[in-house]
Each structure stands twice: as C-alpha cells, then as structure tokens.
Amino acid sequence: MSTVVQPCARCGARWAVRGNPMHWCPRCRGVLLSPAPVDAPPERRNYRWVARAPGRRPRDGRATRPAPRRDSATPHYLQTPRWGLRDAPPQPAPVPHSRLAGFTDRVAGLLMTTAVLFAAAALAEVGRYLILLRNRTRLIHPALLFVSDASVFLMAGLAAAFALMSAVAAVGWLVRARRAAYARAGRQDPRSLRMLLCGCLIPVVNLLWPGVFLTELAARHGGDPRLLRAVRIWWCVWLLNGVMVVAAVCWRFARTLQAQADGVMFTVYTDLVAAAVAVLSLWVVRLCEGLDLRGRRRMPKRWIAASGPVEPVIEPVRPVAESAERASDSAVGNDVGTDAAPAPESEQEEVMAK
To answer: How many angstroms separate the CA atoms of 7 and 42, rounded?
Structure first.
C-alpha cells in the first residue's frame, strides 16, 4: 500500500497515489491537494486545513441532514454584553479564621475600653481615699459609703473582665500577626500555637514571654527602631504592672487603718499603670499594622544625606561702622588735596557700604 496520499479539499478523503497524481476527487469531484506522506508533519505539507461550514458532506461521503434555515436578520445582543469588560482586582487569599477571630478583630476597641475602665477604677479609689480622710474627723453617711463601695467593686470587676478579654484578643492578634509576618518571608512561625498561648496566658510566665514574642515580631518588620523602642517600653511597664498587682493584693491583708489607707492609694497607682499598659498595648498593635495611636496611616519620613561643603548663597554682611569710618577717612583725604590715591580695597568697601 502506498504511503503517499492526496487529501481532498472538499470532503477530506485521502486517496493513495499509484502512478501519476490525480486532480479531481473520485467521490465528490473536489480538488485534490498535492501528494504528501501520510504521517508528514505540518511544516512539510504544502497545504493547510480550513474550517468547513456546517452541513457539508463528511469524509465518508454519507449524505447529511440539511442544515436548518436560519434567520437572515443581523445577529444582535438583547443587552450589553458583560464578558471581557470587567477586570476585577485580585482578591487576597482567604485567611482561615481561628477560634479567637471574634476577639482578634476587636482588639483595638477592647484595649481602649480597658484603659478607660481602669482610669475610672482609679477615680473610684481616689473617692474612697477622700472619704477615709473625711472620716478622720466626721461621720460619713451610710448612703455615701454604699455608693463608694459599689463604684469601687463595679469598676474593678468591669476592668478585670475587660482586661481578660483584651488579653485573649491580644494573644489572637499576636498569633495572626506572627503568621502573616513569617508568611511574607516564605517561612513558617517557629513558635507553635500552644507555646504562644501558654507563654501569654499563664501567670508569672507571661511576664517574660510576651516581650520575647513581640521582639521577634518587630524583627520580622525590618527591625524598625520605633517599633523596637515601643516594644521595650511596653515590656518594662508590663513588668512594673505585674509587680504592682502582686503588691496591691498583698496590701489588702493589712490590719491597721493606716496600712489599709495606704493600700487604697497604692491601688490607685496600680490602676493607672494598668491603664497605661492597655494604651501601650494599643500603641504596639497600631505600630505593627503601620498606623499611629489614633489609627491613621503612618507616613514614613525619608532622609537624604547631603554631601559636599556648604557654600554660602548670600554675601556675608560686613560691619557698617567699620565701612563708614573708612569711607569718611577717604573723603577727608580727598578734601585736603592729598595726592594719595585710595586703595582698590577701600573703594570696594565704600561701594559695599553705600
């Protein structure tokens, strides 16, 4: 069997070449293309395949069903086509939500509320201390004592509850921020979730490890000196607050009235430091997100080092008295008819004085 064939341009049938090539297809009387091997690649063929309109005869020559008659009206769209006209921006990859996602999204509001509640608790303790001072000489009405005690316990309880919720939210934010920072560098957070939770929530242990975790996070942000300084300030105030909380709890067991009064005043200082910790925590969170304390986008300052000596733009001003004195001396010399001509420097100074 011959391996050289002639394809038909009409029906697509391929006829083996035996002897001289043919010009017309024996089946459909279509034009036969040039002879070529059966398995010839496209670059060795001197013809190309073209698309046929629907309804033409198939290759096997069987008659096909006539194509349905189409409407001769101009095709048109019933409405403006939307394909190809909308180029939506790429959406960020969905971040899997953890169990702490509800608190994490509200970390800023919780920290601000905690700071306000601790400040209110400090004011309630100040009111109790003033009542103790007043009680040294006069009796206090029971209703006033009840209001003072209720405000102290209410503010302290609310502040403690919101402080706990803020701690949970801050831990969730820390986990998410560390994962995002390491993911940008193509790495995985070396600290496991269990280690982060235990290091931040277990008492006494959480005085050390949160500072370590935040320092590692600041290092992933390019070692920003402002962020590192904020983390160190927060760490120092956090340690001071832990020591003051322990001291305030121990002061509650004092026996004497003066010691109890001193404990009330010390509690005021403890509440104020706790409010400062909440504000500093919000500051660190905002700095890690590229914001300032008020939540506005922080614009970095770019400094350019200038090189080369400083060239004065304006001619230095000479003393007026010295220039005037030299001008007067030269004028007196001209009046007496001295033959000495003024020096060029004197003329220049005179002109500058004028």
So the answer is: 14
Q: What is the pLDDT of residues 265-297, one digit of tens each?
A: 999 999 999 999 999 999 999 988 888 877 777
Domain-located, residue 192? yes
**Phi-psi sector, 295: left (phi>0), alpha (psi -120 to 50), beta:** left
DSSP code string of 197-223: HHHHHSTTGGGTHHHHHHHHHHHHTT-
**What's the total number of domains in the chain?**
2
- Cβ 256 vs Cβ 246: under 8 Å: no
**Beta-bridge partner residues of 7:** 14
Match 């009046």 to its residue by tokens. Answer: 335
Count the neighbouring beta carbons within 10 Å of the beta carbon of residue 252: 11
Rounded-to-integer distance, Cα 163 and Cα 245, Å: 13
Same domain, 110 and 250: yes
The predicted-structure confidence for 43-85, as pLDDT tens digits, reads as follows: 666 666 666 666 655 555 554 455 556 666 777 777 776 666 5
Give the CB-side neighbour count of residue 149, counting CA atoms within 13 A.
7
What is the C-alpha separation between 46 and 108, in angstroms, rounded? 74
Domain identity same for 252 and 111:
yes
pTM for this prediction: 0.58
Judgement on whether residues 109 and 53 belong to the same structural domain of the protein = no
